Amino acid sequence: MMETRKLGNIEVSEIGMGCMGFSHGYGKTPDEAYSIRAIRMAHEYGCTLFDTAEVYGDVVFYPGHNEQLLGKALQGIRNHVVIATKLHLRPQELADGSSSVLDAVRRHLQQSMQNLCTDYIDLYYLHRINEEIPCEEVAMAMGKLIDEGLIGGWGLSQVSVDTLARAHAVTPVSAVQNLYSMVERDCEKDIFPYCLENNIGVVPFSPIASGFLSGKITVNTQFEQVDDVRKFVPQLSQENIAANQPILDVLAAFSSRKNATPAQISLAWMLHKYPNVVPIPGSKNQERIVENLKASEVTLTDDEFAQLELALNACPIHGHRGHVESEQHSFGNNWKKQ
Questions:
Q1: Every domain of the chain and the residues it spans
Q2: Is 194 a catalytic site residue?
Q3: Helix (H) or strand (E) holding 248
Q4: What are phi and psi of 129, to 5 degrees?
Q5: Is 4-329 assigned to CATH 3.65.10.10?
Q6: pTM, full prediction
Q7: Which residue in the list 56, 124, 180, 194 is annotated as catalytic?
Q8: Which of 223, 171, 230, 209 is nearest to 315 (CA)?
Q9: Which among 68, 168, 82, 149 has a CA at the least distance from the CA of 114?
Q10: Pairing mode, if any, of strands 10-13 and 4-7?
Q11: For the segment 209-233, what is each residue's pLDDT rounded down to a tens digit?
């Protein structure tokens, strides 16, 4: 079994699983039976945190597809896992004044619970900040749902520390799900310090940089034309793949020393660096999923970690994506679903 960590007061395996790829974002999806088996394999290995969102699947399938798939996969073991899902709250839902923020959030939650075949959600995120809806009102609604026992905790995704602090002051936040990896380290400046001080977990999505840090993507890799977000990832342009090769060289050297894969080293690095980090690598490939979870078996010594940090700090990052907070500033519609 994997070691566990806390997201607020929610105990989870130190590496979770992002389930998006079974419904959205990485081109052609596997069939349902394969996807369900992949999720079950992850649980059998020791993964207890499974991450989805109400919107995953809307490009090729329909909203709720990924939640429904996860719900099927977790039948019989639901009470042994932590389910995290996310809602998009849009101003038009509140425009006529007949619905409060609490009413709107409750409607989304009820639909997600139906999709996931459960009567409670362990961790419920606001998927993106919308500046027209005060985060304090969302926080108040989440607090009410926690009091009712419908959710165990709540979180924010792609959020700045200022917004996080405003929300946390109303209802304590359990987790922040932000972009974080060896090539996207903005969270180190303020998100991690704030979260460490306030007992908030950090759940990095895309911790392997959409596959770049695995070393399996090359300048010749062709991404799929339909529903493949990797076409829009800055580090995955041909130009930047070549320019960022020194980072892969660093990972390759440490992989050889530790008898591990580059992806495992990248995950072991963040696990060593922060006690409150719980990465959720996503894949639609069963072998890759198990490989990512096995990063929990890779231990870096303090000296090895210091050497790795020194080597990484010497590598300039090409194609830095940077902080994305609101829906209005999220690469058009292409980043709204991650």
A1: 4-329
A2: no
A3: helix 245-258
A4: -80, 130
A5: no
A6: 0.94
A7: 56
A8: 209
A9: 68
A10: antiparallel
A11: 999 999 999 999 999 888 999 998 9
